[in-house]
Amino acid sequence: MGAGPTAANANGSTRRPHSKQTLPAASAAWNRCADGTRRIASATLPGSWSAGRRGRPLNESRAKPPKRALRARPEQRRRPDLHLRAAIAQIPVTADIAANREAVLRGIAFAAGQGADLLLTPEGSLSGYTHTFDEQAVLEALRQVTAAAREAGVALALGTCFVEPADGRCYNQVRFYDSSGEYLGFHAKLLTCGTLARPSRGEIEVFAPAPLRTFTVRNVPVGALICNDLWANPMCTPQDDPHLTQRLAELGARVIFHAVNGGRGGPLSPLCWQYHESNLRLRAAAGRIWIVTVDSCFPPDTPCSAPSGVVTPDGEWKAQAPPIGEQFLACDIDIGESRP
User: With contact defined as beta carbons under 8 Å apart, do 249 and 201 qualify?
Assistant: First the structure.
């Protein structure tokens, strides 16, 4: 660069003062024009100088302010990716509340050891699958398992029957607790089973319903269904099919936690297994929603009534537990971008 002083601009760039700067001597080539005058054809300046404006070298560019970053439009902004690591406990469910509690505690220990965010247990896993349970024993067992989950930092989707103090009614529930132990609320079984003859007899007579709703676990909108809620088995469903998986998807849920305790050991059990398995896959695909499902394993030497595992929104199994005996499983659910 040619000699001469430099000065700093307010923006930190440099320039050459105009008042005392002189152009170095140049050698020139001239052309004679038809009118007798001479015009310059070319000029060569010493060093790196070229004939720039006001003597500034053309190769010394004026510093430009940095471009302001363009702000993305709201529809262009990437929403955060959602992720859950879910665990399931395929455990025996009996009328023995103390034994049920110990089985749930084994599931919590497994989930914590696997770094799971949430543990799902079967239908009635704490109380037993009955409306005639010892309410105080269930309350005490509930305090113990929620304390253990809180200490382990594991959220719960806990299947149990429970009498709500607010109204004194018995509900077949999935109760949600976050990893800090905060109670988030419950889903009550809506498609309760009963005989097809009128009036219908069975659990339809004893368990109260509650409005369908969603919950939020680790920023993920989730819902719950209990056993027949999902598949509306025509052998024990006197009501119309309300398509609850689709309704939860419309409410914004991205994952459904499905607690099961189905009948087994009968002549139609293999056929029911096929019906349950195909419904899990088809309804996940229809709602474009993840389904995490777990059945009980009692009696321990009898195959479950339905598969336990994780179904993707494409209707494919991402993970599946063996269909007999006590089993635990953990699986990552990469949900992708959150919905608007």
Answer: no
Say if residue 40 is in the same domain as residue 122.
no
Q: Do residues 59 and 156 both lie within one domain?
A: no
Asked if residue 5 belongs to a domain, the reply is no
Prediction pTM value: 0.77
Domain containing residue 180: 81-337
User: Token digits for 327?
Assistant: 């089993």
* Domain-located, residue 69: no
Assigned domain for 126 exists? yes
Strands 309-311 and 290-294, sheet pairing = antiparallel
* Inside any domain, residue 11: no
136 and 57 belong to one structural domain: no
Neighbours of 271 (CB within 10 A): 11
pLDDT tens track, the chain, 340 positions: 444 333 344 444 444 444 444 444 444 444 555 555 455 444 444 444 444 444 444 454 555 555 555 554 544 455 568 999 999 999 999 999 999 999 999 999 999 999 999 999 999 999 999 999 999 999 999 999 999 999 999 999 999 999 999 999 999 999 999 999 999 999 999 999 999 999 999 999 999 999 999 999 999 999 999 999 999 999 999 999 999 999 999 999 999 999 999 999 999 999 999 999 999 999 999 999 999 999 999 999 999 999 999 999 999 999 999 999 999 999 999 998 555 4
Give the whole-angstrom CA distance, residue 230 versus residue 289. 13
